[in-house]
Design brief:
It contains 3 helices and 13 strands, in the order ββαββββββααβββββ. It is mainly β and 260 residues long. The strands form 2 sheets. Strands 3, 4, 5, 6, 7, 8, 9, 10, 11, 12 and 13 form an 11-stranded antiparallel β-sheet that branches. The chain has a two-stranded antiparallel sheet with strand order 1-2. A hairpin with a 3-residue loop joins strand 4 and strand 5. Helix 1 runs antiparallel to helix 2. The longest helix is centred in the first third of the chain and has 13 residues.
Length: 260
């Protein structure tokens, strides 16, 4: 067990984070990507009245999620036959430390005639897949990107970047991640303002919102990011998300920038 790599293990009704759930800024806090993946995994376990797929996931990260045992409660807010609204809450010692809301919509394959389906626009084609690429810089401690394989290109003017990511290790011990969990686990990797501002700055995002047009095929996900920030310490980062064939959705987050 000591040699295995995963972000969480399940012990009864508790979720126990490992060092591989840790974020880049603080040793005692979880990474937003790990939290998003965990929320997606728990929301998927809520039953639905008909075949459905997720189209939106928004996760509140305004409180730190500590590296301690926790419980996750997931439930429907509106349990319709065509649209389902869901909520998941991470609880630590009776306190809610993160909350997610999601939308799931019924699917009927073949419902829309082929001639009416939206075309594949040129900008929706996947960017070239790199043969190799740099990962994230070492910070001297184990963290969530230890569960990932990363091929990252250098940013243009510190504002635009393209990163390919693959969840190469289980998010939860003993479980194979679903396509939605794989997608959610990398949605927080849209570039933050710190990439533009440099090492004297910390950029923290209090939320992440993922819009899903279709489930990704395969393990690799590309995040084509754009950073926008003003002089008041607030920024917004957004990205188009691809699998190796074409676009699968969009992810965005607001950013709090502050000096170290």
């Amino acid at each position: 067990m000591a040699d295995e790599i995963f972000a969480y293990r399940i012990e009864g009704d508790q979720v126990v984070p490992t060092d591989y759930s840790r974020g880049p800024w603080f040793d005692d806090q979880q990474h937003g990507g790990a939290v998003l993946g965990l929320m997606a995994r728990c929301l998927e376990r809520v039953p639905s009245a008909a075949p459905m797929r997720f189209t939106r996931l928004t996760v509140d990260l305004s409180r730190p999620v500590p590296l301690v045992p926790m419980t996750v409660v997931a439930r429907p807010l509106r349990d319709g036959r065509r649209v389902q609204s869901l909520e998941a809450v991470i609880m630590v010692e009776g306190m809610a430390v993160s909350r997610a809301v999601a939308t799931r919509i019924r699917v009927v394959p073949g419902l829309v005639p082929d001639e009416l389906v939206a075309p594949l626009y040129p900008q929706d084609e996947a960017p070239p897949f790199p043969d190799s690429g740099a990962g994230y810089p070492e910070l001297g401690h184990t963290r969530f990107d230890g569960c990932l394989e990363v091929r990252r290109e250098r940013a243009v003017d510190g504002l635009r970047s393209l990163t390919w990511l693959r969840l190469s290790e289980p998010l939860v011990a003993g479980e194979t991640p679903t396509p939605f969990v794989r997608l959610a686990s990398v949605a927080d990797f849209v570039s933050s303002s710190a990439q533009r501002l440099g090492p004297d700055w910390i950029s923290i995002n209090p939320e992440v919102s993922l819009q899903v047009e279709r489930e990704p095929v395969g393990e690799w996900i590309a995040i084509a990011s754009m950073i926008r920030l003003g002089d008041d310490g607030v920024g917004v980062s957004e990205a188009v998300v691809f699998d190796r064939s074409r676009r699968v959705g969009r992810t965005a987050k607001s950013v709090l920038n502050m000096r170290r």
